[in-house]
């Protein structure tokens, strides 16, 4: 990608930031009659569509969100599992051992671990494991190869020969029968890709890990509902299955983004490829356990989320997708990215001008919908419980936890508007809990 493209992202970031500022400023500068009723009407639209999305989960079990094995060994496809690993000495041995004990025909399963320039003991551990498991394929890249996780995955693609690819993080844990149940789901739904629901292993370690467990369940509720209502769903990096031909037709993994999964999700949508969301069995992973790591992770997610809309926004408003999909994408773009910035500007202007905030009903509505999805996602029947002891107080506390996005999104947008960006893969530390 050219340097001019990066400048284009900066310009789009600045335009987006400026637009949010003026949306916040104009109601304070010019007192519009009946503005409050307009805000209430917008809040009603927000809550109406949000509740519709959440409600589609009520019939989830009837449409194969949880599946049993309905496919024979002879009908299972050849599957390549790809794991991009950089400095994963704490978890890589556990992952490889578990992958080779999955219930799947050995002649149809290929496991590729990409040592992406590790500087810890990961190469030594992989060398030992490659002697222990003859079918383990270790692919090595230099630390300056570039492209981050996407570059590592693209590099490994040329060694693969399976019909399907399953991308996992180094801390991933699957149930023994996950792969067979996953392909039973694929066969029934005719999906081009599937995202397993993500679940937290270290859920009870501290407050942050518990909140992230509920957040992942909330996200799955919204993703499943969006898929059912508008046909829009997203990959989440870890636990994403995709047909290899579909991936290649979309241009493989984008090495010029910090979130390859979100970028690929939009490209799949534009190519009319369907992404299924599978509630059970989940893929389990570690949640970050400290505030610094959480904010670093969320800044990367926020930046990647904005990058994809800046990169493909013009295509999203063409005839490539239908009107309901356009509405869904606009709805969640405003709630996830525009509303936090507008709300912060609105609050600052209210304090500076000794005025009342304008947009609080929409923010309150968004938090209310999140709370409902938190509660419902945490209480749903699940093979891996979201929380060991869920309660209403934890739901309220977790909704408050979500407010960190109202700081992260504005900060990231300001940085994207000002500073030139070099694509860096800032990995999450896995401790091997």
Kindly describe this structure.
The protein is an alpha/beta fold. It has helices at 3-29, 35-55, 92-99, 122-132, 148-157, 178-189, 207-230, 244-249, 260-270, 291-316, 323-353, 360-379, 392-401, 405-418; strands at 79-85, 109-116, 136-141, 164-168, 193-200, 240-243, 275-285. The protein has a seven-stranded mixed sheet with strand order 3-2-1-4-6-5-7, with helices on both faces. It is built from 14 helices and seven strands. It has a domain at 1-63 and 203-240 and 277-433. Helix content is 53%, strand content 11%.
Q: What's this model, at a glance?
A:
53% of the residues lie in helices and 11% in strands. With 433 residues, the protein is an alpha/beta fold.
What's the topology here?
Blueprint: H1 3-29, H2 35-55, E1 79-85, H3 92-99, E2 109-116, H4 122-132, E3 136-141, H5 148-157, E4 164-168, H6 178-189, E5 193-200, H7 207-230, E6 240-243, H8 244-249, H9 260-270, E7 275-285, H10 291-316, H11 323-353, H12 360-379, H13 392-401, H14 405-418
Parallel strand pairs: 1-2, 1-4, 2-3, 5-7
Antiparallel strand pairs: 4-6, 5-6
Helix pairs in contact: 1-11, 1-14, 2-7, 2-12, 7-12, 7-13, 9-10, 10-14, 11-12, 11-14, 12-13
Strand order of the largest sheet: 3-2-1-4-6-5-7
Number of helices: 14
Classification by helices and strands: alpha/beta
Distance between the termini: 38 Å
Radius of gyration equals 22 Å
User: How many β-strands, per DSSP?
Assistant: 7
Order of helices and strands: HHEHEHEHEHEHEHHEHHHHH
């Amino acid at each position: 990608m050219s340097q001019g493209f990066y400048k284009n992202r900066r310009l789009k970031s600045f335009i987006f930031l400026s637009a949010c500022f003026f949306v916040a400023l104009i109601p304070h500068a010019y007192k519009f009659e009946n503005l409050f009723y307009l805000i209430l009407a917008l809040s009603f639209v927000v809550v109406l569509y949000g509740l519709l999305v959440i409600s589609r989960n009520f019939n989830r079990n009837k449409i194969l969100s949880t599946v049993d094995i309905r496919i024979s060994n002879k009908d299972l496809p050849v599957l390549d599992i790809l794991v991009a690993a950089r400095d994963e000495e704490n978890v890589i041995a556990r992952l490889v051992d578990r992958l080779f004990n999955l219930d799947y025909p050995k002649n149809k399963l290929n496991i590729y671990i990409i040592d992406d320039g590790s500087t810890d003991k990961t190469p030594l551990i992989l060398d030992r494991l490659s002697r222990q498991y003859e079918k383990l394929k270790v692919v090595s890249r230099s630390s300056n190869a570039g492209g981050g996780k996407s570059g590592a995955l693209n590099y490994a693609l040329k060694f693969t020969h399976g019909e399907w690819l399953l991308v996992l993080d180094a801390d991933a844990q699957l149930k023994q029968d996950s792969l067979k149940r996953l392909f039973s789901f694929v066969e029934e739904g005719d999906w081009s890709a599937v995202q397993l629901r993500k679940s937290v292993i270290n859920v009870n370690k501290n407050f942050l890990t518990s909140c992230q467990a509920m957040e992942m369940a909330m996200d799955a509720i919204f993703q499943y509902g969006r898929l059912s209502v508008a046909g829009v769903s997203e990959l989440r990096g870890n636990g994403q299955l995709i047909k290899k031909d579909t991936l290649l037709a979309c241009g493989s993994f984008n090495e010029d983004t910090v979130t390859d999964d979100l970028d690929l999700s939009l490209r799949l949508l534009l190519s009319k490829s369907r992404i299924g969301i599978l509630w059970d069995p989940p893929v389990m992973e570690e949640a970050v356990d400290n505030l610094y790591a959480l904010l670093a992770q969320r800044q990367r997610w926020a930046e990647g989320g904005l990058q994809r809309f800046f990169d493909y926004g013009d295509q999203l408003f063409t005839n490539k997708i239908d009107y309901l999909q356009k509405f869904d994408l606009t709805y969640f773009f405003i709630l996830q990215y525009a509303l936090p910035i507008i709300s912060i500007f609105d609050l600052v202007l209210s304090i500076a001008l000794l005025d009342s905030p304008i947009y609080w009903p929409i923010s309150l509505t968004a938090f209310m919908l999140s709370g409902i999805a938190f509660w419902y996602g945490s209480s749903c029947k699940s093979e891996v419980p979201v929380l060991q002891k869920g309660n209403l107080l934890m739901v309220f506390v977790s909704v408050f936890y979500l407010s960190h996005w109202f700081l992260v999104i504005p900060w990231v947008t300001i940085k994207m508007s000002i500073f030139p960006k070099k694509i860096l893969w800032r990995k999450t530390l896995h401790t091997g809990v």
